[in-house]
Amino acid sequence: MGKIDILCKKLLNDNEVFADICNLLFHNGRRVVLPGNLVDVPTEHAVCGSPASGENVARRVRDTLKKCLASRGGPAQLLVGLEAQFQEDLSMPLRCLCYDAMCLLQQAEELKGLRKSGASKKYFVSNLLPGERVLRSVTAVVHFGISPPEGSPRVSDLMAPVEASWDAVAVEYVVKRLVLCLLSDEEIAALCLKLRCLAKCLKCAGDPDRLLGLLETDEDMRRMPSLVAALLGLIMNVNMNVDENSKEDVDMCYAIDELMRRATDKGRNEGFAKGHENGFAEGRENGFAEGHENGFAEGADSTMRQVAASMLSMRMPREDVVSFLARTFALSHEKAMTYV
Predict the structure, then answer these.
(1) Secondary structure (3-state) at 270
(2) Angle 15-26/3-12 helices, nearest 10 degrees?
(3) What is the pLDDT of residues 159-170, one digit of tens each?
(4) Residue 86 lies in a domain
(5) Bridge partners, 80 (sequence order)
(6) Which of 123, 198, 316, 326 is an S-S bond match for 336, by CB 3.0 to 4.6 Å?
(7) 275 is a domain residue
């Protein structure tokens, strides 16, 4: 398990964070789920493949699972699981469906285990007796990436197509997803500090200048919890110089210095590349001109020497050859004399 996954799960296990996510996903932001009404539940599901024999145990471990009590602390209403996702898993709807199914089946098996042996011969192979009920289970996904997921939250979109007459037979399963980098400013403002800091940074993580401005001016950034700072440092590959277990506020100077250094390096590298490109183009152009000039000069020089040699071989006076070269090739008298 990677460090990012560990910190994401640690964050989701925080009751204040968990409650805010549930209220945003399931209750349009209304404060229905309260931090004090959440109870941790073991995250491992184990169910038997054969109810009669108890063999072929299947196991799954999820990120976090909590029991939601009634708003006034009454009996449990349902079980809610949150799955953290940084790198997208396109099969996540199938995984969540499996989690919910195993959660329900495990509850039924636990109810059967509480009954005395032989209590009901009629329902010997059944995990549930008439009138017995299990808590509802719902699983949602929290996306921690700096770009939104591309996959569908619907199980039906992951299945092979069938004839239209079969479409109504299958029961649809859709996973609720909270994509932090897509939250509106209004939605972010209603969240707890940990989620506010995280969502604000993820929204502008792709724009270093905007992120730098946020870290320098936003009031929430001055009170960023250490766990969130450590997580953001890993997600954005920025040195936060922080211990996620620290209780102190995070000094954002390290992150700001890192972003400024990156901006400087980027500008320097871009300037160097542009200068290299321009220099190469200019050098090539100058080299071509110089080569053309040198080549023409060499060709003319060779031509004048051949002309002078031919005229001298015909026993023409030396002075006449010099005069001819000077007149024909626009040379000075001294220059023309160098060819004879």
Answers:
(1) helix
(2) 80
(3) 888 888 887 777
(4) yes
(5) 66, 138
(6) 326
(7) yes
